[in-house]
Amino acid sequence: MSEFVRIIDPSGKTLRNDLYNSPPDTVSYIISKDGDLIKAKNGRTGQIEFSETDAATVIQNALNSGKSIFIKDIIEIKTGITVPSYKTILSDGQGGLKAADNANLSYLLKLSPNTKFVKIYNLQLNGNKDNGNPNITGVLVQADTPDKAAGWSQIYACRIINCNNGVYLKGYSDSFWERVWHMQIIGNWFGGVDGPNNINIKGEYAHVVPVIGNSLEDASTAIHLNYCRGWIIHGNWFDDHADYGIYLTEPASEYPYSTIINGNYFTDSGINNASIYIPFRAVENLITNNQVTFVNKYGIHLEGRYNRIVGNNIYGKSGSVAGIYCENDGKLNIISSNNIINFDQYGIYVEVGTTYSIIAN
């Protein structure tokens, strides 16, 4: 906000008028608890503008009225929050949202069709799934209406626990304007022994999504993708997943997932199955420069074709089956320059009838 400020001398004579740019507001509203009340304080004036016992109503009103909110405490909600376009929700890392017991919530935060340019930053998000919220998602980005996409937003530096799905990017179909587009999921901490999710990150008809620098812990599956293209999964920590680290669903016909899986660290990820699973008909994926350690069964389970598996370090342990396990009708894959160590049965297993280029492993 710009204002003219009059500069005067001691006698009161005007010397000049200066244009003064006041500093931008830190946040529009600060959300906090005061006993049973949840209050929204105007970040500029300090006035309490919304105050109720129903936390979701206060937060929703603040989001609808301002451009940003700062959540000071852990606030329990009984209704999910819908985030409009061009809004920012943040905390100092100690504030956030928790689903109330037996609220049966579907989500804590939701971005609806046509929503874009939202920032969700440094929040704690607790789905409380074991206490009456079995199907909850921490952040749901949903293009659930024909011809209305969603996305173009950021989820950054959040702690997301106790959810069925930590983040769920759910498009309506694979048509161009019915997808979720261009979400950024960066630097978050999912799960952990004190708050495991079922799936940390789930994508369905979601395209061009960087997943970078996250800690993905203690879930059935860390990343589950269904008809998603152009994901860049880079520099993440995968730890302690019962089924899969990264799982692509099998498409009905040949489908270019075109996923880049690069520079990640996997440990005890995919205990019952594989750290990385590429199914039949999933094509054009690049798996490179990953550290895949403490493999229980398969490091990389490969059934699709036209994929490249290059330059990975894959370490087994007692009882491990294969570093790279290749089956089904896959062909024309390149498996090159991988370092595969300490597997009881196979470094690389290739099913009879498949054709692979296996070079310098």
Q: Could you characterize what this model shows?
A:
The protein has 361 residues and is mainly beta. The strands form five sheets. It has a 20-stranded parallel beta sheet that branches. The chain has a 15-stranded mixed beta sheet with strand order 5-4-3-6-9-12-16-20-24-26-29-33-36-39-42, with helices on one face. Helices cover 3% and strands 52% of the residues. A hairpin with a 5-residue loop joins strand 1 (2-8) and strand 2 (14-21). It is elongated. Mean pLDDT is 92; it is low at 1-7 and 14-24. It has one helix and 42 strands.
Radius of gyration: 24 Å
What percentage of amino acids are in beta strands?
over 45%
Structural classification: mainly beta
Largest sheet, in brief, is: 20 strands, parallel
What's the total helix number? 1
- Helicity, in percent? under 10%
What shape does the CA trace take? elongated
- Unreliable parts: 1-7, 14-24
Mean pLDDT: 92
Number of strands: 42
Q: State the separation between the terminal residues, measured CA to CA.
A: 62 Å
